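Interim report, section 4.2 (structural modelling).
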Amino acid sequence: MTVGPPTGMRDWLPRETAYRQQLMETIGSVYRLYGYLPIDTPAMEDLSVLQGKGGGENEKLLFKILKRGDKLARAQAEGAELADYGLRFDLTVPLARFVASHQGKLPKVFRRYHIAPVWRADRPQLGRYREFYQCDIDVVGGAGPAYEAEVITATERVLAALKLETYRFRVSDKRLLPLILRGFDVAEDRMSPVLIALDKLDKVGSGQILAELQEALSSHQDAYKRVARFFEEACEARLRADLSLDRFEEHMDSALSPAVMAEIRSVLLGLRGIMESVRFVNPSSAVLFDPILVRGMDYYTGPIYEAVVEGFSSSILGGGRCDGLIGRFLGTPVPAVGCSIGFERILAIQQQRDAGGMTGYPRALLLRTAGDDVGLQAQAEKLRNAGIPVETYLDPEDMGKQLKHAEAQGIVWAIKEVKDDFSLIIRHLPTRQDRAMSLAEFQILFKG
Amino acid sequence: MTVGPPTGMRDWLPRETAYRQQLMETIGSVYRLYGYLPIDTPAMEDLSVLQGKGGGENEKLLFKILKRGDKLARAQAEGAELADYGLRFDLTVPLARFVASHQGKLPKVFRRYHIAPVWRADRPQLGRYREFYQCDIDVVGGAGPAYEAEVITATERVLAALKLETYRFRVSDKRLLPLILRGFDVAEDRMSPVLIALDKLDKVGSGQILAELQEALSSHQDAYKRVARFFEEACEARLRADLSLDRFEEHMDSALSPAVMAEIRSVLLGLRGIMESVRFVNPSSAVLFDPILVRGMDYYTGPIYEAVVEGFSSSILGGGRCDGLIGRFLGTPVPAVGCSIGFERILAIQQQRDAGGMTGYPRALLLRTAGDDVGLQAQAEKLRNAGIPVETYLDPEDMGKQLKHAEAQGIVWAIKEVKDDFSLIIRHLPTRQDRAMSLAEFQILFKG
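Predicted structure of the assembly:
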């Protein structure tokens, strides 16, 4: 009988689990440096919480929990909703609910991070799972651009801690592109297809995007030409990664009416503040202004950003200001800035980079050389008292099998003997060299 | 609009989350000392996995996942099962499935721990939740009593690391009580009600248990008298916590037939090996033989154990040998020894002990004294570079409000100024004393 985890879901073997836990701990420890604290919420929420406004497409992907007992029988008899709960599909809806549930207990400016699994009944495909981890940070109740600057600075420190050196952080504002398109006389009903086309830039070639723009603006040739030119220039700027806000403003000034430019200038002023602040605080920041950044989600209301890593087509994290989202269950709007790290994507990049280097949690193997189980365990205990993780070989196998087991498990150090005076005979498995040493010496070797 | 988590489920505020994470990390780090490694599995499993043999009562408490789309429509039309998956109700069934799914990749003796939430649609009541964490360790593929000794020794080290000093570790064997009852001529069909009555000893008074025994054995007065006497003696021994295997064997010898005693002796021999080994390896072990230990679960096949803490009626952990359980999906029996720690129960004990001492992750607050956001963030960054977690007060509030916020958040250190030469003006909030010091001095103070 072969049996696996449910479709699109995964088991984690010890080495992968260790790797995932260490990644979570690295991310968490950096955010804690900025005063962001962990919270947790249940895997499921009331359906009414999950099905309100805010979930967008993800609501369709809900895993629903069947009602139980009498309630289920009643729902079936009445043709009513068969489910009462659903598994969370993101960490934003639970945050909005959490903020409403605990409002009296939270500080006015509430910084939290949340690293946890979410579930989506998506069609499983390569690299897309039905259970996956998200890693969100949000600051709720903070209204000024200083909060955006803090989130970006903190997140760049996470990327540095993960040794992702070839990333770029793209920044724009959700309001910017619609203003520019309006300035190009794109009709209101054409706005959405144009934005959807532009949003595909990381995934498809620019040729396809131009074709989609042409189709979207088929009866507006003039607007199409202006949008296409803007798009091509912005693509070049993205490639060169050197577009300054000043140059962009100057360039737009020559193309757009003064009325539209006045609005654009006010948006750019906010972005300028954020970017200057980030660069002042972190001179090695890779933050770039990118006017064709779309970030699909409807809920953004101001600055938006994402980070990309060279060689990977889609962004590894994204976020922005979403002032309408978190107040949903409070009945009053609350300013909020957030960032969601693509945990599984970063893990894939890390694993590719560290291929084979995933060592998991290291441990030594205490070999069964002679003596009984009890003596062997007492020896192991001495090593553990010194803080060394030790697996004891308890079955009566010959030395060859024991060493083979150690090598198969990626164990580097085998302990052949623990003498009464705490001196050890150690085998370094990769070189198969035996050495006598003191426990203190081995402690240093093992940890180094 | 007030809205909370689903019935019987909980949110975790930052301080509680930190406390829970630290508890998990303490438990995990001790088990890793013994070569146990973490794994993880999906929250849900195929219904067929969860509904087979082995779940017992817990199967009835399944949260089931509603089928989706066409599959749901078809199931409704045909009156078939509406669900395809279920949330795991323990970590043992997923382990059995995991071992079958990955058999080629696991070592012959596979030691793992798993700390994760499980879900049971139980009637919510005080201290019982519908989502709660379990913490299981198991060694799969190890057949001798050395494995029991290892699990007990490792688990006692966990209890020591958690500073639970008043615990006792009770050990017996699943086969022992039925043998004794048979020796007392308890009829086969009376075995189960007698064992169920004895299993309640931690929860109800001995008077009630005697009454239940009387009822169970109402037409077997002779057997009742012998069982009742045995029960009273065993209760006294449990209270005195001084029953040795030798004394027990001698005592039983006078009450039971030689044929029954031969079988009992073979069980006691195994227990003696385990207990002597544990005491040899850990001379301060609080391991005690306890012949009325029942451990309700059907799946135990040999030695069983549990730990109790003074002042708490139910056990904080329990486990034993369950050789039939893990091989379920392999189609071949596999020896296995496990232990499940009552994570939520230990947490409750710890919280009660540390009341108010739950500090969460400490952080300093950088006050907004003068200057702009950018300067403030640059100052904070210097502190973070030195490894000090710093929350920056970014809103323009007066000093009183800022200090009030810090105190409400349990923050101990406020930073009033970071000078260009990295010297600091620090306020110790509990005493409201200001002091000038170097960054290096503050690092030591903060971490101490």
